Amino acid sequence: MNKFDNQATEALLERKLITENQYQEITVYRSLNIFSLNAELKFFLYLSVLLFTSGIGVLIYNNIDTIGHIAILSILLIVIGVCFYFCFKNSKGFQKSEVKFEHPVLEYLVLAASILTCIFIGYLQFQYKPFGTHYGLATLIPTLVSFFCAYYFDNKSVLTIAITGLAAYVGLSVTPQDLLNNNNFYSDQSLSYSAIMLGVLLVLWTIYSSRIQLKTHFNLIFLTFALHIISIASISNLINDYYGIWLIFAFILAGSSYYFYKVSHDLKAISLYVFMIVYAYIGFNIFLFRVFEHIDLADIWMLLVISLPAYFIGSIILFIKLIKTFNKQIAA
Hints:
The longest helix has 31 residues, at 301-331. Helix 14 (270-292) runs antiparallel to helix 15. The radius of gyration is 25 Å and the shape is flat. 80% of the residues lie in helices and 0% in strands. It has 3 domains: 1-35; 39-169, no CATH class; 178-295. With 332 residues, the chain is mostly helical. It comes from Flavobacterium hibernum. The chain crosses the membrane at residues 43-61, 67-88, 108-126, 132-153, 158-175, 190-208, 220-239, 245-261, 270-288, 300-320. Pfam families: DUF2157 (PF09925).
């Protein structure tokens, strides 16, 4: 790695992008072999929040008859209050641009407070049913709290919780495992429509946020959720023939792929670009199979079998070429 770094620095010097003095300073600094533990420490902080909140859940489950419901809810409320107290005390207030806490621990306190709020409201509804049979409210309220915390404290982790809660409110499970194994998602056509509408709303929100310059660094998160939700909903309807309208979802997937192709270049987001290609490729192959269902392949069956290896090898080569081209374009 040091060899490549030195070569890159020398290339900058040769192109006169840095001075000789700057080159010497960079070389001396690298010779000190100093490295940052920032990422590792943040990972352990994130892991500690997950373990703490998971431990709270296990504690409630194992001692629910011993501790008592009121005591558990009281302890949760006190912990949530303490977390929010320190967060509000040390925050810089709401700002439309990106803002960070002076101490990274406070960011994870916001995350812990949001997760515990979801646990508190969920447990309260499960045990005492303050919202009656309106279970959607038990999902909507922590979702709104999470959106508030995400925007007020500028926390991306909490934003993902908020979007997940919003998806759950409209009846979706947005974890990859649930999307791939949820039979209701594939058998219920109205749920597919809800998924596509939610994805479109997330896209529209990013467009509006960009116009008013409201937390534009959140756009990538919104667009990532929108890409997955719209693409998977469209592909599921390509597989399942609902009254012969699968062709409409083919056009939806094509339009979605084109839009995210443009957005991935605008944001220079390779994650959006890669997933866009994967979903478009899957959708294109399903579309071909649906077309071939209406064609007599008896005469060209052997030709198709022979050409399949070349097709898949060509697809892999094209995928690699597209990624390389994208990296060159965003680096230019």
